[in-house]
């Protein structure tokens, strides 16, 4: 399974829709996109994980790295996720205390 990434402006923030699998093979593509957005001055990001089918520790690392990158510019990286299997990963790793996780893009923006 490949990784699909699309961006759009919404509510003064940039929404990054992610679909497919985020693993050791596809995570670099996500990292490059996050770095490009920040380099382009996009510091308030919403990462929509609703179409993500799989997320491993490499993907978590990329999301944490993205959060650190936007915070150096006084920005934010918010997640959209309602899938219990993904939410469980965030709870087990303690990342629910690090990320704001919203049920939909509207509440995240």
TrEMBL record:
Keyword Transit peptide: no
Key words, A-Z: Phosphoprotein
Domain STAS: start-end pairs: 3-109
PROSITE patterns assigned to the protein according to its UniProt record, in alphabetical order: STAS
UniProt keyword Phosphoprotein, yes or no: yes
A Gene Ontology molecular function term of the record: anti-sigma factor antagonist activity
Function summary: Positive regulator of sigma-B activity. Non-phosphorylated RsbV binds to RsbW, preventing its association with sigma-B. When phosphorylated, releases RsbW, which is then free to complex with and inactivate sigma-B.
Family: Belongs to the anti-sigma-factor antagonist family.
Protein name: Anti-sigma factor antagonist
Source organism of this protein record: Kribbella caucasensis
